[in-house]
# Entry
Amino acid sequence: MITNYWRVAWRSINRNKVYTLINIFGLALGICGCLVLFVITHYEFSFDRDHPDGGRIYRIVGEQQRGSGERRFMNSPDEDVAGFETQIPGFAATAGLFGYGGKISVPQAGGAPRSFDNSIPGSYMHTAVFTWPGYFDIFRYQWLAGFAGALNRPNNVVLTESRGQLYFGKIPAAEMIGKTVIYDDSLSVRVSGVVRDWVGNTDFGYTDFLSVTTATNSFLRKNIPKADWSSLSPHRSMAFVKLAPGVTSEQINARLALYIKDHVKFSQAGSKLTMYLQPLTALHFTSDFHRGDDGDGWRKPYLPSLYAMMGVAVFILLIGAVNFINLSTAVSMSRAREVGVRRVMGSRKWDIRLQFMVETLAITLFAVLLAILLVNPMFALFHDYVPEGVRFPLLSWSTLGFLAGMTVLTTLLAGFYPAWVLSSYDPVVSLKGGGAAGHDRARLRRALIVFQFTISLVFIIGSLVIGKQIAFMSHADKGFETDRVLTLMDWNDPPQKLQVYVNSVKNLPGVEKVLLEGTPPMGFAQNMDNFSFQPMGNEMHMVSAHMGNEEYIPFYRMRLVAGRNVLHSDSLRELVINETTARQMGCPTPRQAVGRMLYSQAPQGGIGKGYPVVGVVADFHVASFHDPIPPVVIENVPERKNCIAIKLLPTEKDTKAVKVVIAQLAAIWTKQFPADRPFQPAFLDESIGWLFGQEEKTAWLVNMAMGVTIFISCLGLFGLGLFTMRRRAKEISIRKVLGASVAAITTMLSKDFALLVGIAFCIATPVAWIVAERWLQDFVYRTELSFWIFVAAGMGALALALLTVGFQAVRAALVNPVESLRSE
# Structure
C-alpha cells in the first residue's frame, strides 16, 4: 500500500512539474530560513551551558541611580559594598577577576624573548586575568599539573594547556611547571599550574590566570591595591559566586538588598543602589540596561533580534505553506475524477487523505534537500551578519532532529488542508466532472493571497522606515565635523609617548592637523566624571568627560555659543561645557553659565577642587541616537589622553592618495611602538557608523525577509495566474472572437489580483504603522513616519503583482482563439 502511495505521488509530481517546482522552491526557502536560524540560535544559546553546576553560578551585577536621575549599569560590585561576600551566607565559592592587558613575553634560551598576543579573538577582552583560587572552585577545569592554591601566593600563574604549548612548545604539562612568563617587560611570574582547555563555546576565553597578590606586590598595586573585593571596580573587573546547594538567587538578592541598606550611605538624596545575581547563561546576551554597555568586552547578540529572526523564519515558512495550499486546492478540480474513481473502488476518506499527505511529504523531502544545499551559500552570502564560530553540522543529532521535525511540521502544515479538501469530494459529482464547495475554496485562496501580501507589505514598509531612520542618523548634524578624521586608540602607552608620535606626523604631506585627546566626541568609548555645581554639599552629577586642550574645539569645528575656548595649559585649569550642562546648572541661557564654577570629586570622596567655566559649546551627539545628549565637560587632563586624531587635508580625497598618507603614518608608528601595538586606524565617520550596527542588522533582517516573502508570494501568484489562464482559456478566446482587445482582456484577468493586493494594503498599513511607530519610539532622535512610505510600499507591491500576473495575462490574450476553441 505504501509503495503504491509513493508511486502515485511520483506520477502526480511528474504530471504537474510547474506547480511542483513552485511548491518546492517556496517550501525550500522557508525551511532554509528556519534551518539557518536554528543553527545560529543553537550556537548562541550554547555559550557556557556545559559548566558543572552551571545553574548555581552567577555574576554579581547592579544598577546605580543618582538623585539627579543618572543611571549606571554595574557589571561588578564597587568598594561601597565590598565585604558582603564574606558576610552574607549562601555562597559555596566566590571569586573576582581583573582583566589585564599587559604585553606578554617568554624568555628564550640564547635569544630575545618571544612576544605573544594578549587578546581573545572576537572580543575586546584579554587572555590574562588576575584572580583568586576560588575561580577554579566556581569554574571546574580539569587540572593537568599543579593546583589552584598556588594562586594564593604572588608571582604565580596558571595556564591552559594550549597556551602553555604556545609559550613553551608541545611538552607535557608537568614540564611547564616552574617556567617563566613575563608581563609588561618586568613582571616575571612562575607557572604553577596547567589546566585543560575548556571544551565548548564560552565567553571566558582566558588562558593566563595570575594570582591577585602578584598585582598587589608589584607596580600594579595602584590599579589593584588590595587582595580582596574592595579593589573591584565596575567595567574593570567582574565578581562570580557559586550558590550553596538549596540556596536560591531570590534569597541572595534579598540579603544583598538588606546589606546595602545597612552598610551603604548615600551622599545625594534620592540615590539608589541595587545589586543582584545574573545567571551565567544570561551573560552572553545584551543587557536591558544600557545598549552596548555591559562592562565586558565579549561579543553579545541582541536577544530581541534573535527572537525577531525566529519570527521571520516562521513567517517565511508559513508563506511557503500558503503557496502549497493555494496551488493544491486550485489544481484539485483536475483531480476530481481521480478521487471519484478511488471512492467508487472502495477507498475510504482516510486512504485518500493519506495518499495526498504522502505526496506532500515527497515534495517536502525535495524541499528539505534543496534547503540543505542552500544553507552554506546563505552563510557565505551573509557572512558579515553570521557569528564567526557558526558552522552547519549537518550530521549532528540536534540538526538531524530539527530537520525531521521540520519535515513533519511542514508536511502537516502544507498538506493537511488540501488532503482534507480532496478527500471530501462527492464521488458522483466528481465523476460528472465537478468538485465540491468550489466557491469556498476560491474564497480561501483569495484570503491566503491577502495574507501573503499583507506580510510582504509589512516587511516592505518596515524596510523603508528602518532605511529612513538609518539615513537620518547618518546624515544628521552631530554638532561636530567627522570628515577626513582618522583615530588611533592606545590604552597601553603613556600620553607622553603618544605625544612624540603626534609631533612626528603633524608635518607629513596630506595631514592638516593632529590632536591628542581622551576619546573622539562620539563613539562607544566614553569617559565619565563627577562634578558638583555647588561648593558645599555632596550632590555630584555624572557628566561625559572629553579630554582635550585648546585645539580640541577647533579641530572638530564645534560651535561656541557663549564665552571662549580654554587657553593653552599643561594641566587642568578651566572648563568648557555644553548647553545641556548649562541647563542642569540652572542657567536659562548659556551666557549665564560662563564664570560659574564646577567642583570635581575629591579622591577620597566629597567636593574637591573648583574650576571656572569659560565657554559653552552647542550640544553635540556623544553616543547612540537612542540616548539623549548628556551633560558634557571638556577638560584638559594630559594623563587621561589615549587617542590620536588625525585630520587629512581636503585635497586627500581619492582612495589612492589616502592610502599613501596612511602608509606613511603606519611607517612612523612601526618605528616608535613595539610589535604588540599594531597600527589600527579607523575613520571617525565609520566608527560612528558602528553605533548604528544594531539598526543595520535589523535593516538587513527586514530586507532579507522582505525579499524572500515577496519572491515566494510572487511565485505563488505566478502559479495561480498560470492556473487561472489555463482554466479560462476558452473564455478568453470567445472574448477575442467577439472583439475584445488584448488590453481589455489583460485588465479583466488582472483586476481581481489587484483588488486582493489592495485589501492586503488596507490591512497591512495600520499594522505596519503601529509596529514602526513603536520601533521609532526607542530613539530619542528619530525621523518622522511619512505617508509616502506607505504609498510607495503599496504601489511597489501592486506593481510586482501586476507584473507577475499581467505577463501571463498578456500571453493568454495573444494566443490564437482557434487553438482553444478547436475542441468545441
Observations:
- Confidence is low (pLDDT under 50) at residues 288-293, 435-439.
